[in-house]
Design a protein that fits this description.
Helix content is about 50%, strand content about 10%. The protein is mainly alpha-helical. It comes from Deinococcus humi.
């Protein structure tokens, strides 16, 4: 079965940033949203597009890099079907 999963925790770890730093940079009013997304094994199954946009904007501010959706989400196809 195909699935999509978050890569945010590994991206933050690789670049030496915390979920707290991302929460501040993203401007999200509920930092727990970022903490949930960035907690390996406990990522939410759903997130709305404004939240995803805020995560990407926050990462761009923190890293100074051209962060794209594929940097934080990964689609893994079912190769059996």
């Amino acid at each position: 079965m195909s699935y999509t999963h978050w890569k945010l925790a590994s991206l933050l770890a690789e670049r030496g940033f915390s979920a707290y730093a991302l929460a501040k940079a993203s401007g999200i009013s509920q930092p727990n949203t970022i903490y949930r997304i960035a907690k390996p094994g406990h990522e939410p199954k759903r997130v709305d597009l404004p939240t995803l946009t805020a995560v990407l904007d926050g990462l761009r501010k923190l890293t100074g890099e051209d962060i794209q959706i594929a940097d934080v989400l990964e689609y893994v196809p079912d190769l059996e079907s």
